Amino acid sequence: MNDLTSNPARPSLAKTALLCLPMALLTFALLSGGSGLQRGPQGLFAFAVTFIGFNALFFLMIRTGVTDRYRAVLFVTFAVAFVISFISHLIEARGTMALTSETFMAGGTPFCHMVIPMILIPLAITKTVIFPGTIIGTFASIASMLALWIGVTLALGRGFCGWFCFFGGLEDGFSRIFRKPVIKHISFAWRYLPFAVLAVVVVSAAVTLSPTYCEWLCPFKAVTEFNAVTSTLVLVQTVIFISLFIGLVIVLPLLTKRRIQCAAFCPFGAFQSLTNKLNVFGIRIDREKCIKCRKCIQACPVLSLDEGSLESGKPLFTCLKCGKCVDVCPTKAARFHVLGVPMAHDPEIVRRLFLYPAFLILATMAGGNIQDAIVRVISFVTSGSFIK
Amino acid sequence: MQIIRTILGYAWAAAALVVALATFFGNDGFSRAIAGTGIKVNPKFSGGEVDTAMVRSGYRVVVHRPVFEALVGRSRSGFVQVDWKPDSVAAWFIVANDGSAGAPSAPIPAGLAGLLGRTIVDTLVLRGAATRITIDPARSVMALEPLDAAAAAAPLTVSQIDWKPDSSLVRTYLRTGTLPSGTRIPYRSIYWRPDSLLPVTVTDTVSCDDGWPLCTVRLDTRTGTSTVTALAPCVLEADRAYKLNHGWAVRVKLRNCR
Predict the structure, then answer these.
(1) Cα radius of gyration rounded to whole Å, chain A
(2) How far apart are the first and last CA of chain B?
């Protein structure tokens, strides 16, 4: 068999099962919360579906050597489940998706990772967090989300956006609906726009001591929470975020088959790219095996690969480590990589080393939301309401 | 050298799994460590540290320190926040949204302790007909039982909410529907609303930390409208009134005179 087109041999079923066993044990522990399985038949059903589904996907990842196809199934499901679960919780807790003055004054706004780049300068100078949340002890408290961000950043770097970010899953889902892109050519210059947005929101947030991106630009307010429209100013902000959501999260991903919000707008993604150096995992392209078919360039959801990447053997530092380029490469030139490890080492071992923390993070983040969403969907089917 | 780099690379990669596990299993500990660094929510959002608390008949007035937040130094404008908080939370009320005249609410014992056992809570008068509400936690249902033929024929419109037995808060959500009298619905979906114990209007004078009066604030707790009478040149106007979970807060805009 020609070496250039050879696929890594599939592990045997027994070896695959053995490789999946640690993940099964870990996901069981994390999904069940240690000992507290959701009570009631619906909760147990949701747990069983989630646990079996997750481990089936991980099994397929290990068995087939394919990463992105199965990651995307879980990632998109996570995003949809997050929206169902989060909005239902908001309606239960405060009766509306709109932020009320009670919520604002009580510091009851759930903290979101998108705020992190904006809080750092004020935090360093004033030792205060410019967000109407609670430091500790509530759902999505500031300290809890900061701890999650630090851990996931150390483990995955910019892979945060491909394996953790519940918002990215929405775009990922929309980008996969059409078989072929309607808009085929996108200037690579757009991939630098998030850094400009990052600079603007970081500076403006520090000057005004307000999370300006959340107030003015964040498209994901459309599926989480937003200020109640009580003035012309808030109306303008509302029109902006709804337009950005429709344009960047739905329409452009549909037409381009790319994650346009992540690639060309998201300041948090840009920030994560800067923190990526803390992380050991990456993607590399074996220049000897690469036949320059450009399939990876066409597939990359965030424009991190271009002709220069094929020459240099590595993508731009904005790479999400989603593994799509690895999956589509016909010669297996694109591969996961560990810093310091020569290319000659078995790429499948490196891929598995990456998959364990990455999948574990995705499964843990997704698990609670998916279980909750399943219970709510059952509730909707049986009682007509998502509200438990 | 390459061997060392390879070993270090693999070790770092393996450490990523340890980090991932620690991130989730140790999240509580890491959160406490972060909170232990002394970081706080910016006073612009929290309202600032409490300066004084004054006891009134049936409620308390909490005055926060003036906030002039800036990245460096103090800003030219700021605010002072005043909270009015009732001494205790009133009894909970079932609110019937049927538009009928009269008072359709029936008081429930405060603390909702009565919900922990099978309890006939009270009798609601809806559309002029008597209806008994029975709460049965064992079966998680609330029964609306008509007490006479007229009530049996009358549809009831109730606003529904969620009640978490493990929470001190009763959380509301917007769900209103018309139910045939006698319908059994989950008791956790009944609308409860706290009745504020604050007087209809409250008026208090706010002083700055050195004791000089800043302004007098008057708040109508039914409408949330507030008026500010300036007693010092640094007072600008009332910003807005905020409904709190229990009580009200008003922020008064200030000019930095220092």
Answers:
(1) 21
(2) 64
Overall average pLDDT of the A219-226 stretch: 93
Interface A-B: count of C-beta contacts within 8 A: 180
Greater model confidence, A43 or B258: A43
Q: What is the per-residue pLDDT across A22-49, written as a single tens digit (0 to 9) for each?
A: 999 999 998 887 555 556 788 889 999 9
Are A128 and B189 in contact (CB < 8 Å)?
Answer: no
Residue from A204, A341, A350 to probe the interface with B (highest B Cβ count within 10 Å): A341
Contact yes or no for B40 and A144 at CB 8 A: no
- Does the distance separating the beta carbons of A91 and B13 come in below 8 Å? no
| β-bridge pairing B40-41 and A128-129 | parallel
Distance of alpha carbon A1 from alpha carbon B222, whole angstroms = 82
Q: How confident is the model at residue A34, as a pLDDT?
A: 57
Q: Is A356 on the interface with B (CB under 8 A)?
A: yes
Interface test with B, best of A27, A338, A351 (most B CBs within 10 A): A338
What's the pLDDT at B171?
Answer: 32
Q: Delimit the domains of chain A by residue range.
A: 1-96+346-388, 110-279, 280-341
- Are A364 and B24 within 8 A, CB to CB? yes
Q: What three-state secondary structure class fits B64?
A: strand
Q: What is the DSSP letter of A111?
A: P
Which residues in chain A touch residue B71, judged by CB atoms under 8 angstroms apart? 121-122, 125-126, 206-207, 209
In order, the DSSP letters of B178-241 are EE-TT-EE-GGG--EEEPP-S-SEEEEEEE-TTS-EEEEEEEETTTTEEEEEESSTTEEEEEEE
Asked if B47's CB is within 8 angstroms of A155's CB, the reply is no
Lookup: tokens for A61:
């990842």
Cβ neighbours for B140, distance < 8 A, ≥ 6 positions apart: B186, B187, B188
For A280-341, give the CATH class: alpha beta
CB-based contact B189 A94, cutoff 8 Å: no
Instruction: Tell if the CB–CB gap between B32 and A206 is shorter than 8 Å.
Output: no
* B6, B38, B45 member nearest A132 (Cβ): B45
Cα distance between residue B44 and residue A298, in whole Å: 46
Instruction: Report the alpha-carbon distance of residue A379 to residue A388 in Å, rounded.
Output: 7
Alpha helices in chain A (DSSP H): 13-31, 40-64, 68-94, 101-105, 116-126, 142-156, 160-163, 168-175, 193-208, 212, 232-244, 252-256, 260-264, 267-275, 295-299, 307-312, 324-328, 347-383
Measure in Å the smallest separation between the Cα of B15 and chain A Cα atoms: 8
Express each pLDDT in A295-328 by its tens digit: 999 999 999 999 999 999 999 999 999 999 999 9
* Average pLDDT rounded to a whole number, residues A127-144: 92
- Which residue in A46, A47, A92, A31 sits closest to A377, CA to CA? A46
Q: Do B27 and A150 touch (CB under 8 A)?
A: no
A344 touches chain B (CB under 8 A): no
